[in-house]
């Protein structure tokens, strides 16, 4: 453990999406995240997943450094240009400046790996730290679950899925990357405008269930979730059934968990709805000793825990 710096407001902790450093009149938010599940649009992916974690802390993503590791004997000018084009396109869409990084040919790789290092900033009074969540708070979920996972699955198993479900079905699921989309920057910034947000978390590897475990751990609370309130898109149900995956444990970028005081529910839901972002109350935080529970068909069960992401059964 390194020496504690008093300017570190939020340090390394399970359930917090980024670190926060005091920079005078504002807080600097810093995040690093690699892309390892896919090579498709890898630069675009990297920008969006890092930007998500800045936004969940209440901040605006601003600056990006990219580390790009390329495979021996498989790298050409076309690949390099594609990666940088995707990075620049995604950064431009979110108003982020690409300001540095590192690129190399790396021995032993069979595919490109891209890691982002993103910085953002937030006014001190609008910082969202997940340790502030407390028992009695309500849990909101935007968009739905397993969005990223289904897009990856439709890309990796395109041929066999097209033969069984048709090209239109597969193209629709592949387009989940963009509609409903894996970015939660808009969701987070809108919610933070209208209420005192106690916590925000974007569930990624391990799906919604793992995101809830992380949230409960950092806030020292329990959880009760209403299964029927969780939005699971029709195509997601079909593909999870096809491959025997539990959608609660599938990589879930695109969903945003928002934790608020019940008195703020109406304002947040209304603001998100007016901005065409689907959102619902899926549960609440409870006392820690009550554990993590999910109610399905009237039966109270333990929330499932996933040692590894469900998508690894297929990809």
Automatic annotation (TrEMBL):
Record-linked Pfam families: AIRS, AIRS_C
Boundaries of every PurM-like C-terminal domain copy: 134-290
Coiled coil: none
GO BP annotations listed: protein maturation
InterPro entries: HypE, PurM-like_C_dom, PurM-like_C_sf, PurM-like_N, PurM-like_N_sf
PurM-like N-terminal domain span: 15-122
Matching SUPFAM superfamilies: PurM C-terminal domain-like (SSF56042), PurM N-terminal domain-like (SSF55326)
Domain of life: Bacteria
Similarity field: Belongs to the HypE family.
Protein name: Hydrogenase maturation protein
């Amino acid at each position: 453990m390194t020496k504690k710096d008093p300017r570190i407001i939020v340090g390394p902790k399970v359930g917090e999406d980024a670190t926060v450093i005091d920079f005078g009149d504002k807080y600097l938010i810093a995040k690093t995240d690699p892309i390892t599940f896919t090579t498709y649009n890898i630069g675009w992916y990297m920008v969006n997943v890092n930007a998500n974690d800045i936004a969940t802390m209440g901040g605006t993503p601003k600056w990006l450094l990219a580390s790009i590791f390329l495979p021996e004997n498989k790298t050409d000018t076309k690949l390099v240009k594609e990666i940088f084009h995707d990075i620049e396109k995604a950064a431009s869409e979110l108003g982020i400046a690409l300001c540095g990084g590192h690129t190399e040919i790396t021995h032993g790789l069979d595919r490109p790996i891209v890691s982002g290092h993103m910085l953002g900033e937030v006014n001190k009074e609008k910082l969202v730290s997940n340790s502030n969540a407390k028992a009695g708070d309500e849990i909101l979920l935007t968009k739905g679950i397993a969005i990223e996972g289904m897009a990856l699955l439709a890309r990796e198993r395109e041929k066999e899925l097209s033969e069984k479900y048709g090209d239109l079905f597969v193209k629709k699921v592949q387009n989940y990357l963009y509609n409903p989309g894996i970015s939660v920057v808009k969701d987070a910034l809108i919610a933070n405008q209208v209420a005192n947000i106690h916590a925000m978390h974007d569930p990624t590897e391990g799906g919604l269930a793992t995101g809830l475990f992380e949230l409960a751990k950092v806030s020292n609370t329990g959880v009760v979730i209403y299964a029927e309130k969780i939005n699971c898109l029709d195509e997601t149900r079909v593909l999870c059934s096809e491959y025997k995956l539990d959608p609660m444990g599938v990589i879930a970028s695109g969903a945003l968990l928002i934790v608020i005081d019940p008195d703020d529910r109406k304002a947040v839901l209304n603001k998100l709805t007016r901005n065409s972002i689907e959102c619902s109350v899926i549960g609440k935080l409870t006392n820690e000793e009550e554990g993590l529970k999910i109610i399905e068909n009237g039966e109270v069960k333990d929330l499932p825990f996933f040692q590894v992401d469900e998508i690894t059964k297929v990809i």
